[in-house]
Amino acid sequence: MATQLKWGLAGVGMIAHDFLTSLGTLPADQHSVVAIAGKDLERVHRLATLHKIPTAYEGYEALARDDSVDIVFVSILNLQHYEITKLMLENGKHVLCEKPMGMNYNQTKSLVDLAREKKLFLLEGMWSRFFPAYDALEQHIASGGLGDVYHISIQFGVEINDIERNLMKDLGGGAVLDLGVYMLQLVQFVYKDTPTDIVCTGHLSKAGVDESISCGLKYKDGRTATISAHTRATMTNKAEIIGTKGTIALDYFWCPTVLHISAANNTEWTLPKGKYKFHFHNSAGLSYEIQECWDCINEGLLESPKMSLDESVLLSKLTDTLRAQLGVLENGL
Description:
By secondary structure, the chain is α/β, with parallel strands linked by helices. It has helices at 14-23, 41-50, 61-65, 81-90, 105-118, 132-142, 164-167, 175-191, 286-298, 309-326; strands spanning 5-10, 31-38, 55-58, 71-74, 94-98, 122-125, 149-157, 197-204, 210-219, 223-230, 238-243, 246-251, 258-262, 265-268. The N and C termini lie far apart (46 Å).
């Protein structure tokens, strides 16, 4: 018989609330939340009470040592992902970590190495990958529906410059790590290859944080991609995948519920309804990645075939390249 996955949460922000609400739409015999931890005990208690979580911890050490927890969802500031994911892995916990898993290649690679050494499940929370629209997109391309894909064009702009972590370099925000990584993962999802060349420009804030990026990526066999992101302006937030037989458009490409194959051919998926209001667009779709964790662990897999650890490592290399070209990173740090 399949076992129930007992979740612990590290973090009490808006994404933690959305995560808990979406988890509540899944079968209770497969998922339960047994503990939550954060730095602000009052906020921890508030979320624990709302979502009926039995145990609340101040700080993350106690959560790491809690034997009743099988897997931890890490949803704190980008800067802390590495440290807290490492702590959980060292204490024998499986981990689902919000993207980016590490602030750079070195951090990401060391977490992957640690998880493999300890034979624990680790997944970077690239929730986009688990939406049914991505499965349908892959099937359409694989069946030759687009012909040969030669170009991918993506825009992602949201006004997030007033959020503290996006203003301060040492909190790990910025256009590349918050937005760019979503665009890169889609390009990689389609091309399944490493770019042969990347040219990237953009603007930095006075604090040295990347506010905007505009990049051209070159792949072998005549394929290219352009990605643009902005933290000061709202953009079309659409991806276009262009092949010799047509173009597929994905609105809200990082959490899509519709696949526009042609004017006469649209497929739409309905997201589950949560008990509480969600903070972010299509957050009910977090249920897909939560279920992926259960499916993989239940089958004895230590990583997801839809978002492999090697791919997380590659994405961290690419984001390092982008940030270095923008002038955010000095000496790869």
